[in-house]
Amino acid sequence: MLFKPKKFKYKKFQKGSKLNRITKNFINKNCIYGKLNLVAVSSGTLNSTQILTLKQTISKIIKKKGKLRVNVFPNIGISKKPSEVRMGKGKGNLDHWLFKIKKGVSICEIETKLITIGIKALKSVRYKIPIETKVIKY
User: Fold this and answer.
1) Which backbone phi and psi does 126 adopt, to 5 degrees?
2) What is the DSSP annotation of 82-125?
3) Whole-angstrom Cα distance, residue 99 to residue 79?
4) Three-state DSSP state, 73
């Protein structure tokens, strides 16, 4: 099941000129929930399927030895017209959901007693995300 919001005011958003570039630097100094934190080093976007795979891979490695909290949720709907359709006739249908990530934002947090398993889980997730990240231990 993919992540998507239950309620929203507008289904179809305006993308803006540059969707992947986010200018402000937001640095979250403290870990609110867990001991291990996955923090974005560069800005970009995460798709709802990428967030779902992130959650699945971490929970597969951690199992019941720790708790996972995902801090990001896709809230921007991206519309797309079908292929080989002529110009005009309105905006396309909703295709997928995105979340814009700023530099320094905490993507997910893990609370576990076995820190080595948590670090292993976060390092395995780094390859599945299109954003540069780093693991922070508190």
Assistant:
1) -55, -30
2) PTT--S-SS--EEEEEEEEE-BT-EEEEEEES-HHHHHHHHHHH
3) 14
4) coil
pLDDT value at residue 102: 85
pLDDT at 15 over 80: no
Q: Can you read off the two tokens belonging to residue 90? A: 């309105």
Q: Strands 36-40, 133-137: parallel, antiparallel or unpaired by DSSP?
A: antiparallel
**113 class by beta-carbon count within 10 Å (0-12 exposed, 13-18 middle, 19+ buried):** exposed
Domains, in order of start, for the chain: 36-78+94-137 (3.90.1170.10)
**Average pLDDT of the residues of the chain:** 85
* 131 contacts 46 by C-beta, under 8 angstroms: yes
- 48-85 burial by CB neighbour count: b if 16+ within 10 A, else e? bebbeebeebbeebbeeebebebebebebbbbeeeeee
Q: Strand order in 36-40's β-sheet? A: 66-70, 106-112, 36-40, 133-137
